[in-house]
Amino acid sequence: MIKALRGMKDIIEDSDKFTHFIKKASEVSENFCFEYIETPLLEETRLFKRSVGESSDIVNKEMYQFTDKGGNDVCLRPEGTAGVVRAYMEHKFDKMATPKQWYYYGPMFRYERPQKGRLREFHQFGVESFGEASVYEDIKVILLASKILDSFKINYTLKINSLGCSECRPTYMKDLVSFLEEKKDNLCEDCQRRIIQNPLRVLDCKNENCQNELQTAPKITHNLCENCNKDFEKLQNELKKLNIEYEVDTNLVRGLDYYNKTAFEFVSTEIGAQSAICGGGRYDKLVEMLDGKPVPAVGFAMGIERLLPLVNIENQRNGIYLGIMTEDARDMALAKFNELTKDNKVYFENRVRKLNQHLKKADKLNLKKVMIIGEDELKNETFWEKEL
Ligand code: HAM
How far is 149 from 156, CA to CA, in rounded Å? Predict the structure, then answer.
């Protein structure tokens, strides 16, 4: 038997939660005036190399990359931001720094080692906001993420950090690298490699020994320039005023290279080791890095499969069951079905059944109202009706 590939899943049992999540998250995003954008699943490989970063695990180890029949080096998107940025530039919005607020959802592909909460094909719901450099846009985007999670009564911890800007980060990086060089022999192999390729990523190494060594590492939040510091304080003050609880996590650096200033993650303690349910931040240099005019931007993405176990939907009865008890009633039932489906959910059982068989099926389908046509109803052009 041919089975789905390792790390890829059919969404069947949870499909009602899945569609409900997308509907609700889209609705909340539209309340924030974000509009829907759809970008292709397949993009040129260099788009991700130049955005997510050559030194990131995603680009280094996890891309579904191949040469297509036209000889193009392409890759299944590992995340949504790069494609949305490409679309922003391709449609020339960068030329005038046109503000755009978009939301999207769809499959992403990363060739990771599958485990609970970590898939090779997974779905994200994300938002990207272009054209607004103010920290108030970061606050708006964090508020939007929290509103989506709150609408499903999901418990979470919000972690925030500031990754600084091109003014303050280089000095910090110098301090960090010289600290790491001193500790080099005590760090894991991955971290030793990262000191050269991507020193910030050493900070979020999961190895306990490395974390012990890093306790005295210089903290980026102690090395921010005046502007970044002011914004980071504003962010915290506003979150407090909005009653959004947060923790400052100076080791939160995110796994993608394009971030600056605000970085954040929502984590859940209820879903095991892969606890990040939403990650995002500001990426003011990305449009420019991809040869566009400089436009500031900020966004996030949520992992839908990680959220589904936390989503509860009330299993309320709704919809209409339409059934016939005599062959001759079929046309009348079909006409009613045509009329009702204009604005109702209707299940039309077109096989002739006894009343109790119809009722049993309506109950199983969790429908609320039953409408049946038997001989008498057909004669009188009425329906036998019952609420379940
Ligand atoms: P990310 O942190 O790589 O960020 O992914 C966002 C979310 O996708 C994670 O928090 C997690 O819930 C989910 N996720 C990631 N990998 C997997 C996996 N292998 N299996 C299941 N779920 C997974 C980004 O992708 C950025 N593009 C977010 C962003 C948007 N930043 C700015 N705008």
Answer: 8
Tokens of 314: 């009330």
* Average pLDDT over every residue of 287-305: 97
Which tens digits make up the pLDDT trace of 97-126? 999 999 999 999 999 999 999 999 999 999
CB of 267 closer than 6 A to ligand 1?
no
- Which residues are within 8 A (CB) of 268 and not within 5 positions of it... i.e. 6 or more apart? 154, 155, 156, 157, 275, 277, 306, 310
Mutate which of 18, 56, 108 for ligand 1? The one with the most ligand atoms within 8 Å of its CB, which is 108
Q: How confident is the model at residue 258 (pLDDT cuts 50, 70, 90)?
A: very high
276-282 and 247-248: which strand pairing?
A: unpaired
- Cross-strand pairs, 76: 42, 64
Instruction: Check pocket membership of 53 for ligand 1, CB cut-off 6 A.
Output: no
Alpha-carbon span 116 to 273, nearest angstrom = 8
Ligand 1 center from residue 303 Cα (angstroms): 6
Distance of CA 306 to the CA centre of its chain: 9
User: Terminus-to-terminus CA distance in the chain, angstroms?
Assistant: 41
Supply the pLDDT for residue 25. Answer: 98
Q: What is the pLDDT of residue 255?
A: 83
CA nearest ligand 1 atom 30, residue: 300
E strands of 292-333, at which residues?
297-303, 320-324
Percent of the chain residues past pLDDT 70, beyond the cut: 100
**Which residues, including other chains, have CB under 8 Å from residue 32's CB and lie 6 or more apart?**
101, 140, 144, 147
Q: What is the pLDDT of residues 26-36, one digit of tens each?
A: 999 999 999 99
Atom of ligand 1 nearest to the CA of 118: 20
Q: What is the pTM of this model?
A: 0.94
**CB 80 near ligand 1, within 6 Å:** yes
